Every structure is written in C-alpha cells, then in structure tokens.
Amino acid sequence: MSPLLSVENLRIAFPSRQGPVEVVRGVSFSLGRERLGIVGESGSGKSQTGRAILGLTPVSGTATADRLEFDGVDLRNASTRQWRKLRGARMSMVMQDPKFSLNPVMTIGRQLMEAVKLHGGKSEAHDKSIAMLEAVQIRDPERVMAAYPHELSGGMGQRAMIAMMLVTEPDLLIADEPTSALDVTVQIEVLRILDRLVTERGMGLIFISHDLRLVSTFCDRVLVMYAGRVVEELDARRMNEATHPYTRGLLNCLPTITGDSRPLPVLARDDAWLE
Ligand SMILES: Nc1ncnc2c1ncn2[C@@H]1O[C@H](COP(=O)(O)OP(=O)(O)O)[C@@H](O)[C@H]1O
Ligand SMILES: [Mg+2]
Fold this sequence. Notes:
The chain has helices spanning 46-53, 80-86, 108-118, 125-135, 141-146, 154-166, 184-201, 212-218, 245-252, and strands at residues 5-14, 21-31, 35-39, 62-64, 67-70, 73-74, 91-94, 172-176, 204-209, 221-226, 229-235. By secondary structure, the chain is α/β, with parallel strands linked by helices. Bound molecules: adenosine-5'-diphosphate and magnesium ion. The site of adenosine-5'-diphosphate (ADP) has 13 residues, from helix 1.
C-alpha cells in the first residue's frame, strides 16, 4: 500500500542579500496513518517543512521536491481547484497561535459550521460542530459556539481551533507546536484528543515540537532536524539508542525525574553535522 504522504528531497529557499538561503535542505520521509514527530531547535526548518506540504510556503520562498505526494495527488503542481478540495478538508494544519487561525469577527459556531458546509454536509453542520467541540472536551459547546475568539481563554481558544481543523475529518493533520502556549495539564489533554483521533479515525499526524521528551512519549516515529536537514530518524520507544551527537545532546538536556541538579549541559554544535 502506498503511504498517505511521501516527501522526497524537499528544499525551501528564501532570498537574502547574499543570494538564496536554503532553510530546508533535502528532507525526505513518508507517513502512514500514524504519529510522526518532528523535533529540532528553533530555526531548524520544522514549520517551513509543514507549511510546504500544505502549499503554504510564504510567497518570498521557493519550495521544490523530487516528490511531494498526498494520497496519489502530486502536490507540486496541484491546481487551485485541487488545493481547495484538499486544504482544510483532507489536510489541515494547527498553528502555534490560535489568534492567527480563528477569524476574530466571527463566532466559533459560525466558523465551524462554515468549514463543514464548505466541504459538503450542510444539514449536519450544527450537530457536527457541537460533536467536535465535545470531542475536544469543551463541556458547554452551545456557549462556545456563540462566543467570539477573544471571549475564550487561551486553552479554550486552542481547543476551538483544534476542533476547527478536525471538523472536516482530515486524513492528515499537521500540528505545529500546538500545545506550547498552554499549561501542562491542558497540553496533556490536547495530546490525548489528537491521540484518540489517530486511533479512532485512522488519521495521519505530523506533530512538530522542540520538546524531544514530549514527542518521544507521544509519537511512533521521530525525525530530528538540524539546520534544515533530518539528521536522524528514530523509533520513539528507542530514543536511548539515538546515535547522532545532536540528538544525544537534546536527550542530555532533558531534566531527569530524580531531580538531579547538575547544571544543564550546553548543546554542542559541529559544522561536520551539516555535511
Ligand atoms: N518568510 C520568511 N522569509 C525568510 N526566512 C524565513 C521565512 N520564514 C522562515 N524563515 C527562515 O527559515 C528558517 C526555518 O524556519 P522555521 O521552519 O520556521 O523553523 P522552526 O519551525 O524549526 O523554528 C529560519 O531560519 C527562518 O528564519
Ligand atoms: Mg516553527
């Protein structure tokens, strides 16, 4: 069976005064109906990788790939019409900050229902929206439906946004640091929701984070990115077998549960990793 998503030799460049700078430099991976984590420090190219899959590379940038295929569709030359059928319907992305993804002048309910209607299903729009809000553990969905984004707390807004991205029942969800703005208990709850959707609906999930510990507990497989490249791919249960010095460095930076108070090691960097 062919995978849900295939990415081969993805490269993304932005212009600079010194000429084009490649920020993603030959990333390849494939994804089935599973949880794939992408970790790496800030600036390593995680978000741009996710955005390129959805055709959302900023206009100043250039994305190329030898292969970029979603469920048999070649995304590299997908038409506007094909994108309209895919984006927000079969593939969605949860961004870090709900403020940028929710429309501030429309109630949550109206936004949810529009999303359902846009992709078929007019009659069930209301019921589906309520059910999705319940699925993300919002206890008073009717009240939230009537609210505007600014009337919700951060955690509630984040859940409303996740409901928004999931209400069309996508086959692929890219969650870009979806929980970093939330406190720990809400984080765990959101992860549990995503987890259930992968198990129950057979969704494929790309979970982007800088937190190696979180990613390795939550995902099946982990790609470690450094300076625009995948330097290591690991089975999440076998993190301790990581061999790349950058991954080892990330692992050594994790605070231990024994409350060991050694100073955190400084992450080593080496130009040789760029080869
Ligand atoms: N619109 C843009 N124009 C120029 N450079 C950008 C733009 N967006 C991102 N970059 C650069 O691309 C690199 C990778 O960014 P990003 O994928 O957002 O990293 P991450 O998500 O891993 O923190 C960074 O060095 C960033 O400065
Ligand atoms: Mg990012």
